[in-house]
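Letters spell out the chain; backbone shape is given numerically. Both lines appear below:
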Amino acid sequence: MNFIFKIFLLFSKLPLRVLYLSSDFIFFVIYHLVGYRRKVVLENLQNSFPEKTPAELRKIEKKFYINFCDYIVETLKSFTVSSNELRVRVQHINQDVFKEAKEENKNIILLAGHVFNWEWFNALAEAIPQENSHPVYRKVQSGFWETKIKELRTRFGNQPLEAKEVVRHIFRNPNDGNSVYLFVADQTPHVSEVTYGLNFLNQKTPVFVGYDKLSTRMDLVFVYCDMKKVKRGYYQINYYRIQPDGEKFVEHEVVKKFHQLLENTINKRPDNYLWSHRRWKYQHAIKVMGE
């Protein structure tokens, strides 16, 4: 496995213009030859956009696979890409939210979705005034790849935290404006952990509520990350502070607002979302329906 990874690293050092040729080849294989998860993708698109015609859905599907293959080679590039190149390729807009939170002595919870390419948030750690940047990740079964993923997300001064550790870490550390926690917050909870759901993309959707519980127990700043693919290899991320309707957040307010914002992002650029994920497989387990 280590030998294979060394080959991956050598491959990662190639210029992106070369890696995108590989992306084109991967697209041909998984879309035209293998048909990787095409049934899942098409079903997700049909359920999410019932108003669209079959031709419109097929167009979104094909563009999704192109973006998905770019995501694969871009993630591989993440192991060796320089911070200078990443800063050129990813433009972070409205960074005032980080300065404001620092001045207010409040830590930040960043909420992003599986919008390409979420792996390229890494260099943000070098651009913000906060001392501590914590990408939140979920453990994988392979111990080897667990180590490599942590190494990837440790780049540029990040301090990754496993999902089961992060809430404890937030409560135990000072809320002083010096820490940022990045959640890719549209993960599907395991069926045994489903306690709440809402309407998202025209479907009953089980959602995580861990970060929502933080909103009612601590005075934190919640920020939505609106990622946009400008063109191949170039992205913009707009940061929007999520404000409570009243003086403070109430239960499930943040989780609802995050999914509303994410749905707006997806509706604008549906081909840039991760449709190959079985996002709605535990609909039957929803015990509470939030409207």
User: Anything to note?
Assistant: The mean pLDDT is 92. The chain has ten helices and ten strands. Strands lie at 90-93, 108-112, 132-137, 161-162, 179-184, 197-200, 203-206, 221-231, 234-242, 289-290. The CA atoms of residues 6 and 12 lie 10 Å apart.
